[in-house]
Design brief:
It is built from 14 helices and no strands. By secondary structure, the protein is mainly alpha-helical. The protein has one domain. α5 packs parallel to α8.
């Protein structure tokens, strides 16, 4: 599969995360994430022999999968959720901008930067539009962990190209350890709840999709593809997520969501144009 197609498949799975989260909003977030990450790691259990990775690689995986969700949950608890989500969605832009800094042989071309900024504008329109255009003024310290989560996901994504090569099956180990850490946070920070059979089915779907298969597809995409292009394509996540929420929650499709979609499509076309000329040089 072409790396960009792997990235788009991961993005399509991540788009379902908000809708599944809406259906499971009564489940404490660390419990939800911990169980879903554990489920997501299960398909890689038969390949556990490929989990033998250096300690630094395992630390990078936990940093990415657990660190991202940990800071995002803190942000959503201590900052207005719409604004926190906007800050968090700086991670595609950070992937584009940081790729030439962290990966040898890459240059930041003007088309990538313009495409990333177009994607950011499109994501902002979509997210604000989904919230009814309401933004709260003022500063909240919760924006700092939201920015931190964006930095973590961008640097984790690029960092997988800097550590010694490891099999994609090792993502299962990252998910397993991160899930256990999330459950530990639940035990310390959250109230106990009883889960219904429906809850368990939806958590299973979340684990097998946006918190499971998506991470494996993302790893394959970043290892074989151009992170500058993939960073631009990633802005499809908020628009696809918003459109799916419109269907699940029965919300109206607003002009800002449609305009955001148009900007993101334009960004994707611009950012992936000239793929042969923008392929990263060997390290």
């Amino acid at each position: 599969m072409h790396p960009n197609l792997s990235a788009l498949a991961a993005i399509a799975l991540w788009a379902s995360l908000a809708s599944l989260g809406l259906l499971l909003q009564h489940v404490p977030p660390f419990l939800l994430t911990g169980l879903a990450l554990l489920v997501g790691s299960v398909p890689a259990w038969p390949l556990a022999r490929q989990w033998r990775v250096p300690a630094g690689t395992l630390a990078l995986g936990i940093y990415g999968l657990f660190g991202f969700h940990f800071l995002l949950f803190i942000a959503l608890r201590h900052a207005p959720p719409v604004e926190a989500n906007l800050v968090n969605y700086l991670w595609p832009l950070l992937i584009v901008v940081l790729a030439p800094v962290l990966l040898p042989g890459l240059r930041l071309r003007p088309q990538h930067l313009v495409a990333a900024l177009l994607g950011l504008a499109g994501a902002a329109l979509a997210i604000v539009g989904a919230a009814g255009g309401q933004l709260r003024g003022g500063w909240s310290w919760g924006y700092l962990p939201a920015l931190g989560s964006a930095v973590i996901w961008a640097t984790y994504s690029l960092g997988t190209r800097r550590v010694p090569a490891f099999p994609t099956a090792a993502i299962g180990l990252f998910g397993l350890v991160s899930g256990l850490l999330a459950l530990a946070c639940h035990a310390v920070l959250e109230p106990r709840v009883a889960l219904s059979a429906r809850d368990l089915l939806l958590i299973g779907a979340m684990g097998l999709g946006p918190l499971g298969a998506a991470f494996f597809l993302w790893d394959r995409a970043l290892k074989a593809g151009d992170p500058r292009q993939i960073g631009v394509l990633s802005y499809a996540t908020p628009i696809a997520s918003t459109l799916l929420l419109v269907l699940v929650a029965g919300r109206p499709l607003t002009w800002s969501v449609a305009a955001g979609a148009a900007l993101i499509v334009a960004a994707a076309v611009l950012g992936t144009r000239g793929a042969d000329e923008t392929r990263p040089a060997p390290a």
